[in-house]
Amino acid sequence: MNPQVKAVEYAVRGPIVLKAGEIELELQRGIKKPFTEVIRANIGDAQAMGQQPITFLRQVMALCTYPNLLDSPSFPEDAKKRARRILQACGGNSLGSYSASQGVNCIREDVAAYITRRDGGVPADPDNIYLTTGASDGISTILKILVSGGGKSRTGVMIPIPQYPLYSAVISELDAIQVNYYLDEENCWALNVNELRRAVQEAKDHCDPKVLCIINPGNPTGQVQSRKCIEDVIHFAWEEKLFLLADEVYQDNVYSPDCRFHSFKKVLYEMGPEYSSNVELASFHSTSKGYMGECGYRGGYMEVINLHPEIKGQLVKLLSVRLCPPVSGQAAMDIVVNPPVPGEESFEQFSREKESVLGNLAKKAKLTEDLFNQVPGIHCNPLQGAMYAFPRIFLPAKAVEAAQAHQMAPDMFYCMKLLEETGICVVPGSGFGQREGTYHFRMTILPPVEKLKTVLQKVKDFHINFLEKYA
Amino acid sequence: MNPQVKAVEYAVRGPIVLKAGEIELELQRGIKKPFTEVIRANIGDAQAMGQQPITFLRQVMALCTYPNLLDSPSFPEDAKKRARRILQACGGNSLGSYSASQGVNCIREDVAAYITRRDGGVPADPDNIYLTTGASDGISTILKILVSGGGKSRTGVMIPIPQYPLYSAVISELDAIQVNYYLDEENCWALNVNELRRAVQEAKDHCDPKVLCIINPGNPTGQVQSRKCIEDVIHFAWEEKLFLLADEVYQDNVYSPDCRFHSFKKVLYEMGPEYSSNVELASFHSTSKGYMGECGYRGGYMEVINLHPEIKGQLVKLLSVRLCPPVSGQAAMDIVVNPPVPGEESFEQFSREKESVLGNLAKKAKLTEDLFNQVPGIHCNPLQGAMYAFPRIFLPAKAVEAAQAHQMAPDMFYCMKLLEETGICVVPGSGFGQREGTYHFRMTILPPVEKLKTVLQKVKDFHINFLEKYA
């Protein structure tokens, strides 16, 4: 068996999620529990939590799937226009044909136009856009190409701690070296460039740091980076000749009124040609998050900047081995980047649906922060963006001992107890990485408001009991 | 840059296909050529060649995509029944939710029921079914888990020559050792077990052969293995303790009246418990081929037999890092394994459409074989199954010299000339592997009958000219 595969860990679907599945089966079999359902707050899966799909998106998808519907009066003209445009760009006018490995041409053009609008006119080139099978596929493909070397020349990949565990998993798989830089919990999980400097200097003793991964808005930490911070990071990447990976899948998920999303691409261009012609950047987006939450379609794209032509050639070759990303996911991505505009028939309904989802998420972000901070022994930074709370939990020494007796990380022990006693499934901080001796968990804010209130109340009650029990 | 990525080659979308794209752009720009369109006979992409999707499949997909249509009288009840069943098994009743990493439960049940029917009652267990992103994803994931070791203990993976180049590409990527066994062109590309013995013995000098890959029906070679041959292969795998990978994506594409598809799973069970409880097997299927040709949805499944529980755990973990296969592709796979049955409203139309596609393919297989064999300097084995002709071309010494002067493989030189002079894009045999000094190309038989006749006539004329030119 491949030892690098053995070394892979992925907490978001790890042992606690397997346990949740077992408990669900027991409930189905009629086994009595102190709760009647498992609430899967472990994964950012909006529609599984009851969020309704955006009507326009699904209308276009249905028209592309079954083009007979193009004659139906029940579908709006703007949806039909989008569907016709996608289909005319597909082989045989069908979603059932392979696309080019890089993705359907007109969809890459739409992505480039979207990026240009988003970034206030900074140009994007469709040749630099690659459609992907969700963002995970793009991230792992780029890392696969960049990693090389043995011994001290093994590639170092810098990732935030806490991180989204796709990064650590792919780094293990590729036998690269994970170089941790710590986000500053005392300071709303900010990224401090001095910490990047510390990390890269220490790493140079035992590997060759080549790649710097950034997640903004943060997962699991929910911070939104300031423009100043992004400039500092880009300057650092330029100094150290690091390839920047900007995971920006939560770009639509910014809730705090003091925060705005700034793309790395835009800031890079605005810093002038010394940066914009030299720093290598790949940025990632997805259909799975934002307001649409279309996880199942596995749509995504990446934009690459300053990629060496040889690497670009290798990228296309590598993508071609897997033929193409799912064309239905590409179509979903197209609708995300090319939504109805004012004057179009579907604009009003689309805007209403989008704002309803994002408005609710903003409410739930505030609600979660406030409620967690009322609980003794829990501290929660503001949820400026993304879809998760990542509160710090202060565990009594006796709980830590009890966990050790069960050969479990203390936060895993806590989360297992939470699951067993309340049915709420969250992911221990140890699955994302955290400073030694601190404990956290990640919980999504996706359940509907009333349900989320109940969940938070249950966590609070559990936590207070837990503290008493292990006092 | 990753040296293993650099070593990857994938001819089906390689330099000749890039050239085809350039020529298409030139035609669009109005540059005159001896032809008016490029015919992409390089890839098994049925719908791109004008094949219409199966109506029932797309109806169910549209219903799943936009469930409002469940109230529409324009959709048949049996399609609605399928759609409801799929949706009730999805999180939030939506294709937009992530599924379990192994795939939607009820779809895995339907796959197991299909396999049991196909194999005349040999049982299949849904726990052994993994839904995948096309078959390629399953094949590369299993290989990734199985490969290990360095130096003489590096894993050897046995593949047929000629092969489908996914295999060589993944082997390069994983830094495993490719162990070639040659199919017998003189004998309709049969697999001879003595050749397997030779290959494994020679390989043991420099690696640890662990995996045996079989493609049946063959790609690019189109042979259909006899039951006897499959028994011999299984016995050999048992003797040598090899993990069997059976690529059976063309299981519906058998044209020769003397041939039948036998699954490795069925034969394994019928050989008795010594084999059926010991030989490890993974077999693969896909929505992309057969009569449906739904390549763009990237649907597929694999069934694993006798997989060690530890490896099974690693498999689920590895799949979970990529979250899940596209749920729309899973739904497409469901309809392939759970089509309308006699008595259902859509049965007649479904059967007519299916038989029309398969009947046409059988006609085109015979037509292609017959026509190629009329051309001096071309020899083509019967196309017993799959979707390709892989004729041998006898190239004059002067042509081989001219190719060398251009630093090209002789069959690449031939295929480039064919493309430039006729617009027909086929893949040189060197991209699949062939015995030293022999030359071939792979051409799909997917164009509609009349167009295929024109294509074959053009290849014939080109070939005769080519022989004259380099005589």
UniProtKB/TrEMBL annotation, chains A, B:
Aminotransferase class I/classII large domain: residues covered: 59-458
Alphabetically sorted, this entry's keywords are:
Aminotransferase, Pyridoxal phosphate, Transferase
Cofactor requirement? pyridoxal 5'-phosphate
Q: List the pathway annotation.
A: Amino-acid degradation; L-alanine degradation via transaminase pathway; pyruvate from L-alanine: step 1/1
Subunit and partners: Homodimer.
Reactions accelerated catalytically: L-alanine + 2-oxoglutarate = pyruvate + L-glutamate
One record GO biological process? 2-oxoglutarate metabolic process
Q: Which Gene3D superfamilies match?
A: 1.10.287.1970, Aspartate Aminotransferase, domain 1 (3.90.1150.10), Type I PLP-dependent aspartate aminotransferase-like (Major domain) (3.40.640.10)
Q: What is its EC number?
A: 2.6.1.2
Give the highest taxon in the source lineage: Eukaryota
The Gene Ontology terms for molecular function here are: L-alanine:2-oxoglutarate aminotransferase activity; pyridoxal phosphate binding
Question: Which family does the UniProt entry place this protein in?
Answer: Belongs to the class-I pyridoxal-phosphate-dependent aminotransferase family. Alanine aminotransferase subfamily.
Q: What does this protein do?
A: Catalyzes the reversible transamination between alanine and 2-oxoglutarate to form pyruvate and glutamate.
Q: Name one Pfam family in it.
A: Aminotran_1_2
The identity of this protein, by name, is alanine transaminase
Instruction: Offer a single GO CC term for the protein.
Output: cytoplasm
